[in-house]
Amino acid sequence: MFTAFRDHIEKNFPQLLSKPGIVACSGGVDSVVLAHLCTQTGMQISLAHCNFRLRGSDSEEDELFVKKLAEQLDIPQFITHFDTNEYAAAHKLSIQMAARELRYQWFAELMDKEELSWVLTAHHLDDSLETFLINLSRGTGIEGLSGIPPDSNGIIRPLLAFSRAEILQYAREQGIKWREDSSNEETKYLRNKIRHELVPVLKELHPTFLENFRKTQVFLSESAQILSDYTAQLKENLFVPYHQGYKISISSLQELDPLRGYLYELFKEYGFHSWNVMEALLTAMSGKEIHSKTHRLI
Amino acid sequence: MFTAFRDHIEKNFPQLLSKPGIVACSGGVDSVVLAHLCTQTGMQISLAHCNFRLRGSDSEEDELFVKKLAEQLDIPQFITHFDTNEYAAAHKLSIQMAARELRYQWFAELMDKEELSWVLTAHHLDDSLETFLINLSRGTGIEGLSGIPPDSNGIIRPLLAFSRAEILQYAREQGIKWREDSSNEETKYLRNKIRHELVPVLKELHPTFLENFRKTQVFLSESAQILSDYTAQLKENLFVPYHQGYKISISSLQELDPLRGYLYELFKEYGFHSWNVMEALLTAMSGKEIHSKTHRLI
Question: Which of A86, A130, A214, B25 could bridge to B47 as Cys pair (CB 3.0-4.6 Å)?
Fold first, then answer.
């Protein structure tokens, strides 16, 4: 796996080889293997660990484990503590969403303060499949099926090209130690159902299911990218800057077919779902306003 | 279900109410329910049944059943016989693909000869989910995940908005009789695995999984439609008519990003997968020709 990892970095993320960055490390097998692979590849990494204080002594032992790993690999470490429960309550977020916000905010501050250029997270191909299936179960569009992005604004996920099985095998071969995530069985009902009941059957459907899924993700991301470029072009024609906003000709919009599909693409970045926009179009004569969290259509 | 069916037709396929057409009827519960719903809605239908002669006396009994159904509903019937095995051997097709070709060729001839305007097939939402999962297991792009199209060149599938459970329930409530498909358990390994092992777990992931999947299919079809419109526009700029073909500037192609995604969209209708086109671009200087089944790039 080391050779495949190094080739993958050289080909797809060469910027990781020339500048220093962070590996987000929980202490679980994925992020510990990622840290090992990065140091072996000669990348200049620091470990960053968030202690969310959600699992009592387990949280403290995870933190201690990451400290020791950094010493063992002889690299810098950054550790922070959050009162996740308090933040979630204050911002009316689920614990999971609160942890996510806190983590990514801290990464951004850390990169800025320490002059680091990138953050790596250890999401892998099975994570991406689980996300695909969760989004599918809820109803979704092409972005929801395009999986976890390999590169989103400096947060890079080089293990998305690898499966959980490959990562585990590498850890065992190399005698790498890790911490089992004690939250796994308790809080991640949906992911566990998918992991233990759904994915094994999917893998039985085709001998190279996971590899085929990886290709599907690439195809869908490319289609999503093309759609997004096209939408940007359309906007240049349709959205005419006007005061602090845009003036948009309703009759031009109404010529688009399939109308709802186009409206979704054109207005999603402003927090409007196409139903809002449809309503605005239909009531355009009445002067009614339609609001999203951040914008309004008048 | 009758009311929902009638509303669905009036809203989405009003053309079915003004002209006569065909209902493809195997004798299975889906197509028999479809025939009943159509006559109740007042649509002017004939039944069309293909006897593929693949299942001995079962095939003959299916044919007899459809004849009686047409008499009972007091509508015209068209029945044809195929030597499917011979056709498959002669055209080097799988039995399933051969049956499919024979069926759709015959429908086209029948529509032409009898001056009928449409064919209905009884594919439903669960069929669409199974197709989605089969394509997913093989690796696919947005079209492969857009499911069975509700309307493809006059072949219309009005039951795609309904689930297998709804259709069965309607048949039982109305005392409708049907023939069990004896090929089901033998030849359709993949579909049966999906139906009995995969879909039940998916449905446990979300209380309205199937309805959410229906929305996903609509979103994906709309995105695919927009992509296809955009590709058509791009082609008008990039493909310059020249002799019997087109002249395409390689340097304009090479500016497209993501290149492979664009090449796939631009060349798929000519039977080229983007890898062929990539090869052609890279070897363009050498004068090498790249062939698809129907076209060549020189």
Answer: B25
